[in-house]
Amino acid sequence: MRGSQVRGVVVIGAGHAGVETAVSLRSGGYSGPVTVVGAERHLPYQRPPLSKEMLADAGDPDELTLRSGDFFRDQRITLCHGTAVDIDRAGRQVHVVGSRPVDYDHVVLATGAVPRRLELPGRSLRGVAELRSLDDAIALRASLAGARRVVVLGGGFIGMEVASAARKRGVEVAVLELGDRLLKRAVSPPVSEAVAAYHRAEGVQLFFGEHATELVGSAGHVVGVRTGSGRVLRADVVVLGVGATAVDDLARRAGLDTDGGVVVDRWLATSDPRITAIGDCAVVCDPAGGTRQRLESIQNATDQGRYAAARILGEQRPFHALPWFWSNQGALRLQLVGVAGDVDKLVVRGSEGRFSVFCLRGGRLCAVESVNDPGSHMAARRLLERGTPNEAELLAVDFDVRVLARRARTRENAVA
Ligand SMILES: Cc1cc2nc3c(=O)[nH]c(=O)nc-3n(C[C@H](O)[C@H](O)[C@H](O)COP(=O)(O)OP(=O)(O)OC[C@H]3O[C@@H](n4cnc5c(N)ncnc54)[C@H](O)[C@@H]3O)c2cc1C
């Protein structure tokens, strides 16, 4: 009686979100088959170091592995190397290139994101790089080893992390940013200014309000970037770092709702209740609250992976987690927590090189952005996990959130 057999869970995508789902299924007591389908040839690995430690000569790919091959075997998690090309929803099977179809009771889509494609003349010249995968990082590191001058297109997190890693190698770096400040989509102006000041002091040239119109080549290799203002910046490596787009083609082919990512509800369910989508590929839509959110962070990927497993195991509550993110750029350590959105007040506390920005909306703390200020940041995170302190509470301690966090802990201990 095939219909009554446990077919298991198929996780598509062996990144942070997918692996967390599989591991959490087992730790939560799921005993059916668990298969993780991954298109990359490596064991699942950590992505953040790709734009940081891995670009230095000593960066070791083996240190990035999320879990060993033995771990997956011991946990009876089948790693299936290949690209999933079709979800047969009627037959409840996933089709993977080079493998037999895999049966499922439930599919978890964790297909991540890919670099936003920049259509530019000269795009396919040698020396033009993108950065998403371990193979990309290995190739970029090899290019940087022989490079004298790098131009980074895009002043976002990955662009600035690469700029920093390249400077550390002694390579000249210029960054072209179309907007008027760095990290504009993610942080407030005081943080953008601090990041720009840090990189300038490190010798990075920053060009704002500038875009590339052409990658100039010679003998098949990039030699420069022509900009909208007619400048040509010399370059032997050009890094395209202009954001990422969700991988939702498989979902679209399967007839699921997509809209700049795989559309899911507050339970992370797609338009097919047997299919959940998580991590960078998922857009969480809440029609009641009028919100729509696609996050690209390790916290989001792992929290959603853990939640997807819990929901398969019977969790009834909708997904909820406090978003947080970090970026290390040389000696600069940025930490963000909360959702800033339309902020109506910013309060900055700290000194020039070490401060936090408190973002207030409707008189309540909604997000905190910290530059080299991990103590305050962790206190702010603990507070935001418990609720959203109001401005009067914060003013009473002159925004020293460590005092508030300590008080909250003392109160909780007293109650316990
Ligand atoms: C260079 C870099 C640096 C970063 N640094 C930070 C940082 O400092 N802090 C932070 O919080 N976040 C950082 N991020 C973001 C973070 O890595 C992502 O948010 C996170 O990896 C998302 O996890 P995911 O599992 O959703 O997707 P991914 O990690 O992208 O994994 C998705 C996987 O699915 C595979 N896949 C896609 N389609 C298929 C298919 N059809 N069949 C089989 N496999 C498929 C892909 O090949 C990929 O391996 C960084 C990202 C990059 C690229």
Automatic annotation (TrEMBL):
Species of provenance: Pseudonocardia zijingensis
FAD/NAD(P)-binding domain: residues covered: 9-305
Cofactor needs: FAD
Native organism taxonomy: Bacteria, Bacillati, Actinomycetota, Actinomycetes, Pseudonocardiales
Lineage top rank: taxon: Bacteria
Pfam families: Pyr_redox_2, Reductase_C
Family matches, as PANTHER family: APOPTOSIS-INDUCING FACTOR 1, RIESKE DOMAIN-CONTAINING PROTEIN-RELATED
InterPro entries (alphabetical): FAD-oxidoreductase/Apoptosis, FAD/NAD-bd_sf, FAD/NAD-binding_dom, FAD/NAD-linked_Rdtase_dimer_sf, Reductase_C
Keywords: FAD, Flavoprotein, Oxidoreductase
Protein name per UniProt: FAD-dependent oxidoreductase
Domain called Reductase C-terminal: residue spans: 324-400
